Structures are given as C-alpha cells and as structure tokens.
Amino acid sequence: MKFVHSIFLKIALSMGIVMYMAYAIPTRQYTNLYLIGISVFTALFLPIFTIVSTYLEQQTFRLTASMFASKFAKFVWQSLYNLFALGLLVKGHVIDTNNLRMVGGLVGAVCLTSLASQGLQYLAIMLSNHGKGNRFANIFFALSFNVIISALAAIGYKKIQVIFIILGLALGIIGIFISLVTDIWGIVPSKGGVGLFLGTFNPVHKSHIAILKKFIDERHLDKVYIHPTVIPKMHQYLLDKEMIEIVKEDAGKRYYEKSALADPLVNFFPTGKVFYEAENRLFMLKTAIKEAGLENKVEILSDTKRYQDDGFYAIIKAIRKKHPHTQLHGLLGTDEGGMLLHDIYDETRVKPYVVLRRDNISGTAIRRGEKGMTMPKVTTFCLMSKKVKVVCCLVKQHMSLIIVWRLLMSESNTKFLITT
After folding, report:
1. Nearest to 216 by CA among 198, 199, 193
2. How confident is the model over 255-292, as pLDDT tens digits?
3. Which of 92, 164, 255, 321 is 20 to 30 A distant from 420 in Cα terms?
4. Would you kindly state where each structural domain of the chain is located, as residue ranges?
C-alpha cells in the first residue's frame, strides 16, 4: 500500500489525466481508444520511464564525464517515448499529420517536445534548489505545461505552434546545449585563478587528495577553497518533512533511514545512509590537507549560515565577491553529486574541471572500516572514533550531542582528547 502514496505515482497518474484532457477537450475525442490507451500507459509507465531516464543520465556521465552526453542520452530516451506516444495519436487520428508541418512533421514535434521537457525540468529543479517551490511540484507543473502546449501545437493551433517552436529551441539550449558549451569550456587549457572543491567528504580519502593536487597543478591555481556540506540540503528538506529520520547517532556518525512517510520509489540515499557529523568531516579534512602538505594552497571553509540559506550557491557567491576579477574553477567527480555540482557551476559561470575516476576507493567502504583508502591519520581517526565516548553539552540553551576529537599524533603514541 505504500506505493499508493508515492509522489512518483501521483505525478504519473496526474500526467496521464493531463495528457488525456489536453487532447480530448480541444478535439472532443473523449472516447478515442488510442487516446485513452496512451494516457493510461503514461500513467502506469511514467515511474519506470523516470527511473530508466535517471539511470541513463547518471551512467552516461559516469562513463564519459560529459554533461552534454548525459543529457543527450536522456533526450534520446525521452524522444523514443514521445515518438511512441505521438505516433499512436497520429494512428488513432487524434493528431492530423498535416497540422504538424509547421513544427517539422512528427519527428520535429517529437524533438521539440523532448527539448522543451529537458529545459523545463532543468528550470524546475534550479528553482527548487534555490528554495523556490517543492522539487516534485515544480517538475509536475513543468511537465504539465509541456504536455498541454505540445498537445495544442500538435492539434494545429498556429499561434501555439509558433510559441512551441520558440520555447522548444530556447529550452533545449538551456536544458542541453549550454552543457555542450561548458563541456568544451572545461577542457580548453586555462591557467591561473581560484579553485573550488565542494562536496560531502564523507569522509575525505586518497582520491580527493590526488585529484586536488592534479587540479592545482594543471590549472596553475593560486588557491583552492574547500567547503563540505553541513547537512546536505536534500537531507535537511526530507528531515523537515519527516520523510527520513535519524535512527542512530554513534561514534561521530549519524544513521539515516526512510520514515513511514517516505516515497518508496525515491532513492534518498544514493551515497549511503551513514554520514559523519559535519564537525568531524571538517576536522578530517583539515587533518588530511595538513598531512598532504597543501596548507599553503588550500583553505577549508565552514560557513554554516550561508550554506543553510542557499547551499553551495551562497558559498560560490561569497568566494566570487572575495575574488571579483578572478576566474573560478570547480573540481567535481562523475558521481551523482558531481552532476548536481556541474549544474550549479554552469549556472554560476564556474569553469568545470571534471575528473573521471577509475579507482575503487569508496567513502562507503571507509565508513564500513576499510583501511588504506584515506590518509593515515584520518584512517586512524575513523577506526578509533568508535572508542570515543559521547559528551553531552549545553549549547545556546539547547541540549546538543557534540563529538569533537583532537587527534594528537607522535612517533610513539596516538591519543584522543574530547573537547567541547
């Protein structure tokens, strides 16, 4: 019964209704079996379609390190569905092919619909990232608008067709082709400037340090700012909505699980359910940077207020204000977090530096106790943290659980001090 409450399923059912009404009302073909069939198919198939679409996008980026390639793969998948749907509507005489001439025939209508869909979804997610509306509601309204405008254009409303062509091309540029420009911009040789390395660092590991050194050397950077997430914005939103919950806090880590209110079709934890507390990730970062001898090039930031206000957008804005006439370069990987960062960098005019990782180093493995994947002192910290007791202290009149370690390393011994 949980699937009945899935937001994906609700959006799919709603989209089926929107599709049916968008074609049935202007054509008055309420009993057309082709229209009814494709509307029902859309309602049932859309959740699977979305999962496959997301998988193709993520895997293409992981394999190619190209945002354009990943979005183009998604575009092809969406176009196949749109070709199937519009083709059936043509066969069922809901759409007259003569009315499609202005938009480039059936193929033109399919391409414009898919381009508009990509651009509208990009804008919907961008707005939600800035705290403007709910992510899923934004996507629903974007898709609904696209279905309605494409239906009216396909039926033959000339003025709507002009709008449809302009919107399709403009939104296609926003949703797909800007990524091509930034992909090319990112690989064009460039020297000098300030670097950004943003992420969860859960925890920092050897790959982070290796690609950071390469980033500094290849771009000849004067300085690199590192800022870890505090509580990831999506996690905070889901916690506020009681869709996920913290089931345990132990050894400086918090353990998440879905709540009874969670959507069963949504993966809320693509990088795992275990997170080191923000102060511990920050401490491990400082330890790793010092151990790597990068203190003269790297500054680690922890601007909690700005991050909570507008995420990494606010952090980038603050750094740009500090370096107004300097090119900013953004380091990112090819995981899901890297895709999110790439969109942020595209929007904020940060030159991307994408690293295609081929090693087996994993934050998940480190959190499970795997050795040798991070800097020696950080490895010791991760393993010994289980032995550290928890200290409760009163902070600003609220009881908070704060675990702060200070790792003292010498040739002869290792000690942990708990401070508040």
Report:
1. 193
2. 999 888 787 777 788 778 888 888 989 999 999 999 99
3. 255
4. 2-185, 190-388
Nearby residues of 32 by Cβ (< 8 Å), 6 or more positions away: 24, 92, 93, 94
Kind of pairing, strands 405-409 and 414-418? antiparallel
Measure the CA angle with vertex 300, ends 298 and 303; round to 5°.
Answer: 145
Give the position of tokens 């898919």.
114
Q: Are 219 and 190 in contact (CB under 8 A)?
A: yes
Q: Which residues of 269-296 are buried (b: 16+ CB within 10 A; e: fewer)?
A: bebeebbbbbebbbbbbbbbbebbebee
The Cα 168–Cα 181 span in angstroms is 18
Q: Parallel, antiparallel, or unpaired for β 274-276 and 391-395?
A: unpaired
Residue 248: how many other CB atoms lie within 10 Å: 11
Q: Answer whether 164's CB lies under 8 Å from 329's CB.
A: no
Domain 190-388 = CATH 3.40.120.10:
no
What pTM value is reported for the model? 0.83
Backbone phi, psi, residue 227, to 5°: -135, 115
* Token reading at 26: 């202007």
pLDDT tens-digit series, residues 38-97: 999 999 888 888 889 989 999 999 999 999 999 999 999 999 999 999 999 999 999 999
Look-up of token digits 């353990």: 255
Which residue type is seen at 104?
G
CB within 8 Å of 50: residues ≥ 6 apart: 8
pLDDT digits 0-9 by tens, 193-249: 999 999 999 889 999 999 999 999 999 999 999 999 988 877 887 888 888 899 988
Please state, in angstroms and as integers, the Cα–Cα distance from residue 390 to each residue in 335, 393, 415, 417, 419, following that order: 33, 10, 16, 12, 11
